[in-house]
């Protein structure tokens, strides 16, 4: 049986968004589910890296039996467009979607051209879907075959809907096969985190034991965290031909014993990769020796939500961290030459002074790369449940944490002018962090990444012209905030990525 899995593309060339200049990750959701069905012919198309005409061409010439796609909230409409195209070109193919957005907001996909909505972890359920579909001759297949599957929300032939709740999580991550990275071999070298390129993407755990009210990870994974064993992580790292690896875990740094064991295995097996990941500042602050040890076995960057300069706001987000942890974490990372990427939030109720105070705080903190976002109630979060009625729009293109989707205290133009003023902290932070002493500590990394610097700088300068121009934000929301706030059909979007 032929299965086509599609990573959707962004809407417009150089739109505001991380994957253009900061971080383009492998479509691990798709390689992970593909690994479950090695007996079938599977193709993955990453539409961020393909010309728009490739998708209809592959559909019409290859005639897949199943077309699957994935979406986080910002990709919601692009994913819909993929499946609508599939229904037009291969009407008898099963169309399915999975990922964070549909898990938290399945109703977005209650349309004729989406047959199945996978809610939660995909591997086990995907295999069941494929088994049922492939066991029936093509001419006899109907969506009645999807009836009764746990975790699937399915459109049945009689017009009714089977709602199967959340999917079963695999009891152990080690029991799942390694993601089928060979299916994206054609894109080798095109995934990156800033100058770290070519970069592989792996995960080593799923879930988070915290419960921040602006994040739905803990709900997605039912408040449980599962871990890959150190040996399996080492096997997967060793199998990557790329020198750089991003470990995608939302909260990689949770258990000291696991990380000690990983460091030991990487040392013993002499696995030399430069790797980056995500972790909380309080863990870093509490474990300086461990961070030093991880740096010795390749830890090169940590992305952390430092969030805010206001302790009350930190508590209000239920972050359960402190400003003191932020300060100590930034210092420990710098001491070890680990590049700290700090995510911060401005709130829609900010006045001029609040912006300035936050930016002063970031400058003083000493993270290497600050990224300032706008507090956004994402579907499925507690914040969404609480503030949904306040939203100015449910047009998910604007839910990229770069647009204010709730009313701002300042007039919107003023708000965005103040927002883009974080440009100054980006510059000073980088200048302060990347001094000669810090860079010399990790010179092999810089030497390896050096050839990528010119390209990265050109890319960033081009992008920053849009990113730090307040008019970009007003232009993006024009006709959306006002019109969509009144309700109305979802926007028509094209598949164009370039
Ligand atoms: C890498 C990453 C990115 C990459 C791109 C991801 C990609 N697809 O290539 C980049 C850097 C671009 C990115 C950007 C953003 N991201 Co991001 N990102 C991630 C991260 C860390 C890893 C994604 C991943 O590969 N996971 C591993 C795979 C195995 O898990 P998965 O995707 O959930 O897939 C499983 C299931 O969902 C399901 N499944 C998924 N798709 C499909 C399809 C089918 C057919 C089936 C059957 C099953 C299935 O099965 C899979 C295996 O179990 C996740 C966190 C996370 N834990 O997932 C956040 C996450 C997806 N990002 C998030 C957010 C908020 C963003 C941003 C909006 C903001 C930001 N500052 O990060 C931006 C927006 C980008 C934009 N365009 O403006 C949120 C999404 C919330 C939401 N409601 O959508 C997440 C969950 C982080 C979080 N803590 O909340 N991100
Ligand atoms: S923001 Fe980070 S720490 Fe908080 S729940 Fe999400 S993943 Fe966990």
Number of strands: 17
Helix content: 25-40%
The CATH topology of the largest domain: pyruvate-formate lyase- activating enzyme
Number of structural units classed as domains: 2
Number of helices: 22
Instruction: Kindly estimate the percentage of residues that lie in beta strands according to DSSP.
Output: 15-25%
Instruction: Give a quick account of the main beta sheet: strands, pairing sense, barrel closure.
Output: 7 strands, mixed
Structure explained in plain terms:
It is a single chain. The chain is an alpha/beta fold and 498 residues long. It folds into 2 domains: 2-163, Cobalamin-binding domain (Rossmann fold), CATH 3.40.50.280; 188-477, pyruvate-formate lyase- activating enzyme, CATH 3.80.30.20. Helix content is 39%, strand content 15%. It has helices spanning 18-21, 28-34, 54-62, 76-89, 100-104, 123-134, 217-220, 230-239, 256-268, 281-286, 288-296, 311-316, 323-335, 352-365, 382-387, 412-420, 423-433, 436-441, 443-449, 453-467, 470-477, 481-484; strands at residues 2-7, 23-24, 41-46, 66-70, 94-98, 116-118, 152-155, 161-163, 192-193, 199-202, 205-206, 226-227, 244-247, 274-278, 299-307, 339-346, 369-374. Strand 16, helix 14 and strand 17 form a beta-alpha-beta unit. Helix 3 (54-62) packs parallel to helix 4 (76-89), helix 8 (230-239) crosses helix 9 and helix 14 packs parallel to helix 17. Residues 208, 210-212, 215, 217-218, 250-251, 280, 305 line the site of iron/sulfur cluster.
